[in-house]
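Cross-posted from the bioinformatics board.
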Amino acid sequence: MTNPALATLLQQPHGRLDMLPYAALLDLSFEKVDGELQLVMPFDETLIGSPGRLHGGAISGLLELAGLLTVIAAQPAGETLPRVRPVTVTVDFMREGACVETRAAASITKLGRRVVNVHAQAWQGSRDKPTAAAHINFVLDWPEQAAPRP
Amino acid sequence: MTGFAEQVAHFMGPFVGRVPHNKRLGLRFIASGDKWVELQLPYAPHLLVDPDHGIWASGPIITLMDTCVGMASMLARGAFEPHATLDLRTDYVRSPKPQATVTARGECYRMTRQIAFVRGLAHDGDPADPIAHVAGTFMFSPSKLAGGRP
């Protein structure tokens, strides 16, 4: 993801994430709450995995996008943006995902130039009762490093 | 195949693609055995996170793998019992080729009284050149059905 329009969008206090097709599929928007980037996934029938529960994959997708966008938002303004790609993602599922709105936010454990370690959490209603959490390692590919392989 | 595995292959297998979130993504059932399942997710524009570069979001791959290994754990259980993903780790080895169909194969390699240990691979044509690798656990309620050690 190297889209500068996305980095600009994330500077807004809130907005929709339709420029990412998969985020549009999940009907995601974002909100800055006390400076923190929160993703909002409203309930929809198409998110259901087993009867009365959200699909764990949809919650994982939300967590991963919260991580990705937090990493993009943390890149220095004005610089060329790297491509940010997840390399390992570990999701812990703590509670069933109920048929209500889900939110997710991520914090950066270490912001390196090549690797970013992220912890993301998803919750419904009370933040003290997380639905799921993810540990994600992102690798940043900078344009100048994108030399063709021999 | 066991009677249960045949029942799953003929009746439950096709149902996987009708689970609302799976249907939304376009996931489909291919085949299953006693303790393994093969599913596919054909390319669709709504699965991308970066349409300019044709890069897939990773959420749909997690959804595919979660569904695949979850079903494998049910097969290994030998019964339709409620189960929940405890954790799932995904290693993204590489991006799928543009407009590829992603095939996932998941297996349950160990079933205990409460826990199913699962692993799986996703590829876009050649299983020896995988896109992603997953390892995870599912939690079952203690049951007399499948035996196994605690």
